[in-house]
Fold:
Amino acid sequence: MNGENICLLFHGIRKRSVRSDDLVNPDLFVEYEKLDELFEQLVSIGYKFVLPGDLSKEKKYLCSITFDDGYYNNSYFLPLSKKYKIPFVIFIASYNVINAHPFIWDLYKKFQRGILPVGKNYEELYLEFSGDQVNSLLDDNHRPFKLCELETLSKEKLVFFSNHTHTRTPFFNLNNQFFIDEIRQCGNFLSKFSNYLREDFAFPNGVFQKIGLLHTMSRFSRVHTIRGGRGISRKGMIHRISLISESSYIPLITQIEKSVSLKWWFSLKRLSIKTIYI
Structure:
């Protein structure tokens, strides 16, 4: 890396005591010790940690940290946040917190339901599962935050919450009013927290169409994708590098290096701008 500003995305954190076999989607859960190694490497290179709104094209060696969805295990990051002075943002799907529901992709994977349907409200998909099935994934590895836990975490100076829509249904093949309502419901939920960053938004699943992009960019100062590469591509859009477990891929620092390579970045420019799957 040559000092490129980057924005990193994580979903879950796995403690050493948790086996990969205990997790429904183990790739999503990065090992705590590997995170510690990564931030030690980034600090040694010269990176400083800032919120996404403080990324600047005029400065180098800036890094922002975000989490998507609202897994309870995101709270494990707090000691590392304090150790390396890292402010971080959790993009929260409010439906799962309010209803104490595990995330639909974990349910689909555990009970072998195949690929999640495209263009369908995720809230409807939860009706496919019994109460016992839902409860089976409410362990600390897979469950979302409880409201009381978010209230406690919101008091931490380095922790911030932002909008990831209500049900986290991808912005694809559903009418625009649905997505407006999704953003509004999540915003109403988050408005009770003093650490709510109202000007940041992350697309569910990294999928969007032009109409959704135009609406969100008119509503928020910063719209977050998971296209990877350098952190800022144009005003108002922040591309995040989504990192996965080293146990099934390559070292975290190498995942970042590959994402910001010029060859990768120029190939990205050829993607369609009408519909983007990431």
